[in-house]
Amino acid sequence: MDKLKKLEEKYRNIPIPENLDAVVEASLKKGRKKRAPKWLLGVAAAAALFTASVNMSPTMARALVDVPVLGSVVEVLTFVHYETEEDTYSANIDVPKITGSSDEINALNQKYAAEGKALYEQFQQDMKGMEQANGGHLGVDSGYVVATDTEQLLSIGRYVVETVGSSSTVMHYDTIDKQKEIVLTLPSLFKDDRYVSVISDYVIGQMREEMLASNQEKVYWIKGGGIPDEEVFYAFTTIKPDQNFYITADNKLVVVFDKYEVAPGYMGIVEFEIPTELLKDMLMSEEYIQ
Question: The pTM is what?
Answer without folding.
Answer: 0.72
